[in-house]
């Protein structure tokens, strides 16, 4: 019985034990030098008696054992040399059995037995059988384990194996296997019994001490794996069944876990593949507390690596139906271990899926089967809350994406979305981001409407509010990142066939429109731009196509886009909606659809009038309207006049005079379009420029009144540049005299005492004058035009 005393006491007992060994070893060495067998046996037995202690922990006992082991090697050398002690090995084998105590007697017997086998005076199998049975005399767990460890150590190179010098006519590999197995079984029994030692010892300390001794037991399995004669047949028929029988019968979770792990690690992968059914059959019989998921994961990992090592072994995996056996075994284990936490079951499915993807990547039905088994396990339970379990589900769902690098493959798996349904909203969004990142990283193209529907079902946590989530509670930065990812995803939805592309756009629109006001500003623009790309591919296509619910014609697509942008106006996000209306108007212009283009412009103006109230936003919006309208060539005279009149009217009504001035002179471009058939109305251009000048003059006077000094002449210089532009373009209404007058006005203003130097307008004006000088000097027709302007 081990006594639960302090560490100091244990150190004292160890020191006493080592001193006893050294003392008796000293006299043993003297007897060895004198070749005095009687004295040698006497002092060696006294030395080995120190190993009879029960006071030491396994760790400290090991130190004591190693001291004795070193001395036993010297003793073996003496026993081997018959000329020194004059006794035959057979008599010596009998003689050492007269030692007083059983433990020293058995150590001496094993030492002489080693010499006996080497002498070949008796068959190795008989000596080994005698020794392994004699060791049954020591049943104390620690003493027995170390004794049998010594037996295993001195016998490992003397087993009657194939090619061994100790394999006689009557000795066979079976005898070697029987010996190692018997020693292993007895050692495991002692190891298991150790957990019942000392009622006062804490369970944690006992488990730690037992764990320190596990390699003593595991070495036997390593020896078995090294025996040349253990071929697949013997392993299958004898070795594995006997090991598994002992593992199952010992009913100890530490022993079962460690030994199952040993089997997987020490025996060849080929053996595991051929005995899969036997090995897996033991798994459900293990104790419920055994960490079977790690054992099975390691087995599948070994088999996966084996399959990856050579393509030649893959047919064998199919022949033995490895997937079916592993899948069935995992099902039985989960069923048998009712207390197994959900994370354990999911971890097993992750390992099985990893195995499947590595060994049978072409079998999508296997992948779906694993996901289906996971769904079955999760069904009837509330949504996962355990963070480790959620992490494992994400790993399970990510594995096919990482393997195939193609989301389309995952979209064909019927159980994929069903697994996602069991995730809580937060993890669902995490998984949705993983899916989107995979698509973007691998530039996967989603090319059918059905695939789009499945995809949006998978990422629904990002495109709409799930039950129980409040979009207002989301982190702003995270929300923006998520929605920008969805926006990028929309550009990955594509098909060369216009009809299918239209179905894709309709499917995406249906899902996006459920996103709520916070999401639409992110997701509608990419949808609109994607649809406009389709429209440009369809330019000139008219009429109805038979067999299609919604024919892919520009008109039909524009109707869909109008509905999508209208949703943005209710968000409200009027600036964005206005930009999109103008984009659509330009596309309608390219398709020569005047009524459609006019309608989009009308919607843009309505938004400007009713929704855009901020002065800065108004300035931006009116310049966008002017710029887009200037590029339009689809309008007839009446429609164009209406729209340009509106644009110039709104320009003159902006809040700030400088903004009014710039918008009005920008309108001048609406009356002079520099292409072959473009409008060229010089009078209205001049009207715009003169109106801009009046506004600039009014702005200058307001500054003078409020500040007591004239402001910068920047607006005048900008208008001068517009005059020069139209002058060069050949507008007959813009004359050199008008330019000359404007230059003189600016010069007078800049030289005025009330005008302070300005870092922007002064260099700007100087640069403009240099340009005029350059045009005068360069020669040619343009030089002649500029000749009358004096600078």
Task: Throw out a few tags for this protein.
40 helices, 791 residues
Overall geometry: elongated
Residue stretches low in confidence (pLDDT < 50, at least 5 long) are 1-5, 543-547
Question: Radius of gyration, Cα only, in angstroms?
Answer: 46 Å
Percent of residues in helices:
over 70%
Strand content: under 5%
Mean pLDDT: 87
Number of strands: 0
Distance between the termini: 116 Å
* Quaternary structure of the protein: single chain
Class computed from helices, strands and strand pairing = mainly alpha
Major beta sheet summary: none
> Helical element count?
40
Summarize the structure.
The protein has helices at residues 7-33, 37-48, 58-80, 82-85, 89-95, 102-119, 124-134, 141-155, 173-193, 203-212, 214-226, 232-250, 253-266, 269-274, 276-282, 292-309, 314-319, 322-336, 342-359, 364-378, 387-404, 407-411, 416-420, 425-441, 449-458, 460-463, 476-490, 498-512, 520-537, 554-569, 574-590, 594-610, 615-631, 637-652, 657-667, 682-707, 714-728, 736-751, 761-777, 781-786.
Provide a descriptive summary of the structure in words.
The chain is an all-alpha fold. 71% of the residues lie in helices and 0% in strands. It contains 40 helices and no strands. The chain has helices at 7-33, 37-48, 58-80, 82-85, 89-95, 102-119, 124-134, 141-155, 173-193, 203-212, 214-226, 232-250, 253-266, 269-274, 276-282, 292-309, 314-319, 322-336, 342-359, 364-378, 387-404, 407-411, 416-420, 425-441, 449-458, 460-463, 476-490, 498-512, 520-537, 554-569, 574-590, 594-610, 615-631, 637-652, 657-667, 682-707, 714-728, 736-751, 761-777, 781-786. The longest helix has 27 residues, at 7-33. Mean pLDDT is 87; it is low at 1-5 and 543-547.
């Amino acid at each position: 019985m081990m006594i639960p005393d302090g560490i100091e006491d244990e150190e004292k007992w160890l020191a006493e034990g080592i001193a006893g060994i050294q003392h008796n070893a000293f006299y043993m060495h003297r007897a060895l030098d004198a070749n005095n067998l009687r004295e040698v046996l006497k002092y060696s037995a006294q030395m080995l008696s120190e190993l009879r202690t029960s006071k030491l922990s396994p760790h400290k006992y090991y130190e004591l054992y190693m001291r004795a082991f070193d001395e036993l090697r010297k003793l073996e050398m003496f026993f081997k040399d018959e000329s020194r002690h004059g006794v035959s090995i057979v008599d010596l084998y009998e003689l050492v059995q007269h030692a007083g105590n059983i433990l020293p007697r058995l150590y001496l017997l094993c030492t002489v037995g080693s010499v006996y086998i080497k002498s070949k005076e008796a068959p190795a199998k008989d000596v080994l059988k005698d020794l392994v049975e004699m060791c049954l005399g020591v049943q104390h767990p620690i003493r027995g384990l170390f004794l049998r460890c010594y037996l295993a150590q001195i016998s490992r190179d003397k087993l009657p194996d194939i090619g061994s010098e100790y394999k006689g006519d009557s000795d066979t590999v079976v005898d070697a296997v029987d010996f190692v197995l018997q020693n292993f079984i007895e050692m495991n029994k002692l190891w298991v019994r150790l957990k019942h030692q000392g009622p006062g010892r804490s369970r944690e300390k006992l488990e730690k001490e037992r764990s320190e001794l596990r390699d003593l037991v595991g070495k036997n399995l390593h020896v078995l794996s090294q025996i040349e004669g253990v071929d697949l047949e013997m392993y299958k028929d004898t070795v594995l069944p006997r090991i598994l029988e002992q593992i199952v019968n010992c009913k100890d979770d530490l022993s079962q876990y460690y030994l199952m792990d040993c089997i997987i690690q020490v025996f060849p992968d080929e053996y595991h593949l051929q005995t899969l059914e036997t090995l897996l059959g033991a798994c459900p019989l293990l104790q419920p507390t055994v960490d079977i998921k790690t054992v099975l994961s390691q087995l599948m990992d070994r088999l996966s690596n084996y399959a990856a090592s050579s393509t030649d072994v893959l047919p064998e995996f199919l022949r033995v139906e490895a997937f079916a056996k592993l899948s069935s075994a995992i099902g039985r284990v989960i069923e048998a271990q009712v207390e197994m936490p959900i994370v354990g079951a999911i971890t097993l499915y992750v390992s099985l899926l990893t195995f499947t993807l590595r060994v049978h990547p072409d079998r999508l039905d296997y992948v779906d089967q694993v996901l289906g088994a996971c769904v079955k396990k999760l069904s009837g339970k509330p949504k996962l809350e355990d963070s480790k379990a959620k992490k494992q589900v994400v790993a399970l769902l990510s594995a096919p994406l990482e393997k195939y690098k193609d989301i389309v493959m995952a979209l064909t798996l019927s159980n994929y979305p069903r697994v996602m349904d069991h995730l809580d909203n937060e993890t669902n969004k995490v998984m949705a981001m993983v899916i989107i990142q995979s698509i973007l990283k691998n530039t996967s193209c989603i090319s059918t409407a059905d695939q789009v529907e499945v995809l949006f079902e998978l990422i629904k946590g990002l495109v709409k509010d799930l039950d129980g989530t409040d979009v207002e509670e989301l982190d702003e930065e995270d929300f923006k990142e998520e929605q920008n990812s969805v926006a990028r995803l929309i550009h990955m939805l594509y098909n060369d066939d216009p009809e299918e592309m239209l179905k894709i756009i309709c499917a995406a629109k249906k899902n996006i429109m459920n996103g709520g006001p916070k999401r639409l500003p992110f997701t509608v623009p990419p949808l609109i731009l994607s649809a406009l790309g389709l429209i440009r591919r369809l330019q000139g296509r008219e009429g109805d196509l038979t067999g299609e619910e919604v024919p892919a014609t520009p008109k039909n697509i524009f109707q869909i886009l109008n509905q999508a942008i209208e949703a943005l106006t209710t968000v409200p996000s009027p600036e964005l909606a206005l930009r999109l209306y103008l984009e659509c108007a330009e596309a309608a212009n390219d398709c020569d659809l005047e009524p459609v283009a006019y309608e989009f412009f009308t919607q843009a103006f309505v938004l400007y009038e009713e929704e855009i109230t901020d002065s800065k936003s108004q300035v931006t919006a009116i310049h966008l309207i002017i710029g887009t309208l200037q590029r339009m060539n689809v309008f007839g005279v009446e429609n164009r006049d209406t729209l340009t009149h509106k644009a110039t009217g709104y320009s003159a009504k902006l809040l700030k005079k400088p903004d009014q001035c710039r918008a009005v002179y920008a309108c001048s471009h609406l009356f002079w379009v520099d292409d072959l058939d473009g409008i060229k109305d010089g009078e209205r251009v001049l009207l715009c420029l003169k109106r801009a000048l009046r506004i600039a003059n009014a702005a200058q006077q307001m500054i003078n009144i409020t500040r007591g000094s004239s402001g910068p002449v920047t607006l005048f210089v900008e208008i001068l540049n517009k005059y020069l532009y139209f002058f060069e373009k050949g507008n007959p209404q813009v004359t050199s005299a008008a330019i000359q007058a404007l230059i003189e006005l600016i010069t007078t203003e800049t030289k005025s005492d009330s005008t302070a130097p300005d870092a922007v307008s002064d260099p700007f004006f100087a640069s403009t004058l240099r340009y005029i000088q350059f045009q005068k000097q360069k020669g040619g027709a343009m030089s002649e035009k500029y000749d009358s302007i004096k600078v």
